[in-house]
Amino acid sequence: MNAKSEYLRSPRGFRWWLIRVVMVTVAIIVAAVAYLLVVGASAKSELIESNPAPGRLVDVGGYKMHINCMGEGSPTVLMEAGAGDFSVTWSAVQPKLSQTTRVCSYDRSGFGWSEPNAEQARTSQTMVQELETLLANANIEDELVLVGHSFGGLNVRLFADRHLDKVVGVVLVDALHEDVSPEMQRINSEAQLALVEELRVVSILQSIGLLALSPEEIPEQGLPLEAMAQYRAILATGSQVDTMIAELSAIEDSLTYARSLDLKHFDNIPVAVLTATHRNQPSLSEDQNKQMAKAWNKMQIAQSKLSSESYFVSTSKSGHYIQLEQPELVIRTINKLVTRARYKG
Known about the structure:
The protein is of the alpha/beta class. It has 13 helices and 8 strands. This is AB hydrolase-1 domain-containing protein.
């Protein structure tokens, strides 16, 4: 047996050898993480530079929000995305619709190109107040046709309730309603909790730059090519994921707030309700999906009674994202309300 082997067999020799191995291993790991952070930061910068905001950033009091307006004419169509989404979700609708009138999509704070507002909880009450400030500071003062998808539908109803004097139409695209049944609320809460846990992992990957290094791994969302590149860039670089977690975690508070207001009937302001009969959330069982479809349809019928002049369209040709799967249907419906507003005016 040689001297080296004899040294390693001794307690003191083995300890020092083990410490050296651990130190070298730690050094390698630290160097690898540091390299990953540097490369990830560089990849983030490249994605940000190659995907600038398509609209303009407006100061709303210490932070900026993004609003993207196309076209000319009145009324202005203002579009709000669903939970966890931002303005690109309207990319199959907005360009063509802008041939008729001015159309604006915007990003709630912390989403898309909008800077986060860390001082306020991500509830509908906060979002409506932020939107009011955004429109005022962006000098958008004409009459509005409001369009909201999913959770965004609840937000535009809350906004309309405060501004009935300037709203001339509301389009609800498979929109959430505050009167959620207890069973649907339970199923939704379970699904949201599971999604939030998944997003926490995604947030870690985003923070160290892994998403920016391989944005093509972010799943397709049914968006047009340019919008999909923008979606991936935002998800890989910005505050999107953390804001999604905050918004989803506060949805129950948003629903409670909406119920507390006893939202008014819109009288003769036209309301168009578009709803998809096909519901298939992979995270839910077949029986849960059936229960969700039944409860969701009940909510859509309730929303069609918000106005004395309402339109109800049910489609089996698309899922929840009607604006991406049947954009022409959404465009026709919005144009109907724009034409009606001009005729009345």
